[in-house]
């Protein structure tokens, strides 16, 4: 992979060099995507810059405790006529993750790509991609320091939210001493860890529980009990009166089962379109599986979108997963 990487200094210079920015994260944004995008926004405000922060699709309301949440535009509902010469993309594993927001780029626009996915293909004109970072927010912390930004509670909250959510509450193997050091610094600016954890990790919607109840009935072990999978259909969503974001986290019920190496969830976002989420323990790098199916992510957490029915999506995933796992479906 091309690793002609920018330095933190170059990223900080990018912020100083331009005056008006388009800031974006990825489709179906999570806590790191949203915390990082709003963290960039707060940095630009401090530098006296103008910005528009846009995503294709809605940002989950669970993140509405973050500063400037009300500035996030959903391009599907609030189209924009303007195009932008300077773009900052955060937490986007590849170009396609930016979705239709790409239609707002002026031709030849300068694009700062800040990300931590090992599958990132360096789609920016300036690429600050660090796969060793636990979260994009961790990289942003360094950029903010380099740019001489004054940390305050609001900025600290954005960065902390990215760290907390992408480490699963400081539990995953990406929780390094450095993550904890940065988190400790952020707490010193007034972030209330109990409140952030409550909003991001503990609180669930009733619709989520209703989707979960239906999904658990589909849970099955396969491949010699090394794989656990779960499925949610469009019918499940309508009967639970749930939104897509209400299906978040289902894949963990699969991966967490004792002895399971790979957990997979198949979520039918719309008829004929299945969002696949994969979580691995040790044996398989699921980012490689997802990449073969047009997606990407991390070794232990990845995703992709597959066309077809849930049954067809399953078959496509098994076809790629089986050689990596070394076990066939009915063994
Ligand atoms: P999730 O399963 O929670 O949606 O995503 C897990 C990880 O895989 C995240 O790091 C996410 O960014 C990445 N990911 C999920 N879906 C896709 C996709 O369609 N393409 C790429 N490149 N990465 C994805
Ligand atoms: Mn991330």
From TrEMBL:
Gene3D superfamilies, A to Z: 3.10.310.30, inorganic pyrophosphatase (n-terminal core)
InterPro entries: DDH_dom (IPR001667), DHH_sf (IPR038763), DHHA1_dom (IPR003156), Oligoribo/pAp-PDE_c-di-AMP_PDE (IPR051319)
DHHA1 domain mapped to chain residues: 235-320
Single GO MF descriptor: nucleic acid binding
Xref: Pfam families: DHH, DHHA1
Signal peptide: none
Residue ranges occupied by any DDH domain in the UniProt entry: 21-162
Coiled-coil annotated spans: none
Protein name per UniProt: DHH family phosphoesterase
Origin species: Brevibacillus parabrevis
């Amino acid at each position: 992979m091309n690793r002609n990487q920018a330095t933190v200094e170059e990223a900080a210079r990018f912020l100083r060099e331009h005056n008006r920015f388009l800031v974006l994260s990825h489709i179906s944004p999570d806590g790191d995507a949203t915390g990082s995008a709003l963290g960039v926004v707060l940095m630009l405000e401090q530098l006296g810059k103008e910005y528009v922060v846009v995503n294709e699709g809605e940002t989950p309301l669970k993140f509405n405790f973050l500063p400037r949440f009300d500035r996030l535009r959903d391009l599907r509902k609030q189209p924009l006529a303007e195009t932008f010469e300077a773009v900052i993309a955060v937490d986007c594993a590849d170009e396609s993750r930016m979705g239709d927001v790409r239609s707002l780029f002026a031709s030849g626009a300068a694009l700062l790509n800040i990300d931590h996915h090992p599958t990132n293909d360096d789609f920016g004109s300036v690429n600050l991609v660090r796969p060793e970072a636990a979260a994009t927010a961790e990289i942003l912390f360094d950029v903010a320091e380099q740019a001489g930004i004054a940390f305050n509670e609001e900025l600290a909250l954005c960065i902390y939210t990215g760290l907390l959510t992408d480490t699963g509450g400081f539990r995953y193997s990406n929780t390094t001493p450095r993550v904890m050091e940065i988190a400790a610094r952020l707490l010193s600016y007034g972030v209330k860890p109990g409140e952030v954890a409550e909003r991001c990790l503990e609180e669930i919607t009733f619709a989520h529980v209703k989707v979960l109840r239906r999904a658990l009935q589909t849970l099955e072990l396969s491949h010699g009990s090394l794989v656990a999978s779960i499925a949610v259909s469009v019918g499940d969503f309508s009967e639970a009166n749930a939104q897509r974001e209400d299906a978040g986290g289902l894949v963990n019920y699969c991966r967490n089962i004792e002895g399971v190496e790979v957990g997979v969830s198949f979520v039918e976002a719309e008829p004929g379109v299945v969002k696949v989420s994969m979580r691995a323990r040790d044996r398989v790098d699921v980012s490689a599986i997802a990449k073969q199916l047009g997606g990407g992510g991390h070794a232990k957490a990845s995703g992709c979108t597959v066309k077809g029915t849930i049954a067809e999506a399953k078959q496509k995933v098994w076809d790629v997963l089986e050689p990596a796992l070394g076990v066939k479906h009915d063994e």
